[in-house]
Amino acid sequence: AQSVAQPEDQVNVAEGNPLTVKCTYSVSGNPYLFWYVQYPNRGLQFLLKYITGDNLVKGSYGFEAEFNKSQTSFHLKKPSALVSDSALYFCAVRDDDYKLSFGAGTTVTVRA
Amino acid sequence: EPEVTQTPSHQVTQMGQEVILRCVPISNHLYFYWYRQILGQKVEFLVSFYNNEISEKSEIFDDQFSVERPDGSNFTLKIRSTKLEDSAMYFCASSRTSSGNTIYFGEGSWLTVV
Predict the structure, then answer these.
(1) Average pLDDT over residues B4-8
(2) Which of A27, A111, B43, B100 is most buried, most CB within 10 Å of its CB?
(3) B107 lies within 8 A of chain A by CB
């Protein structure tokens, strides 16, 4: 069975500083990895995904994520965080049965 | 940009009542899903649907739950007799194909059972 872990419940950064949200995964086959963001009282918005190819994946709103097979990690990064990036971020893995399994989520707070 | 739409956005219902949550997936998508998120908890898979039948369901998706695609565009989740613990945000989602394709989510339907 596949799973993802987000070791940090909360991440706090100052605006303009780099932002990293951590995710590690466990899968039996090839990992299909995703990041979603959820703003308050809103749905899940797709940010980016890794299927195959380049380990550095670029997505929406200036976010990127690095797939690291040896460390089984897929950390989400943004070089310069904005206050508007404050939200709940979910890492997810998709298995051969096509469903997504989500991590517990990380609340990001970017202070002005 | 095409999107998954859900109705209602919020519903309050009495315990024991039937509830139907409706979804219109993205038009060329073939796989459909329902997930739920209890307040403050992680997003949980309920059921996936393909080719007019359930392809997988979780242990949460018991006999009180059912899904249907009645007319080729809508995708519904029915809870036959709601319980207090069914209170959650229910997300509909769809994807074009399997595996690496992105699953797109709707805005969710807040269900409050009183």
Answers:
(1) 96
(2) B43
(3) yes
Give the per-residue pLDDT at B2.
Answer: 74
Beta strands per DSSP E along chain A: 3-5, 10-14, 19-21, 24-26, 32-38, 44-50, 56-58, 64-68, 73-78, 87-94, 100-102, 106-111
Q: Does A88 touch chain B (CB under 8 A)?
A: no
How would you label B96-110 residue by residue, b for 16+ Cβ within 10 Å and e otherwise?
Answer: eebebbbbbbbbbbb
pLDDT band for position B31 (cuts 50, 70, 90): very high
Q: Give the per-residue pLDDT at B111.
A: 97
Tokens of B111: 């269900």
Subunit contact B100:A94, Cβ cutoff 8 A: yes
For residues B46 and B35, is the Cβ–Cβ distance under 8 A? yes
- How would residue B100 be classed by pLDDT, with cut points 50, 70 and 90? low
**CA–CA separation, B7 vs A12, rounded Å?**
34
Question: By the CB < 8 Å criterion, does B90 face chain A?
Answer: no
Provide, as residue numbers in chain A, all residues whose Cβ is less than 8 Å from the Cβ of B91.
Answer: 43-44
How many CA within 13 A on the CB side of residue B37?
26
Number of residues written out for chain A: 112
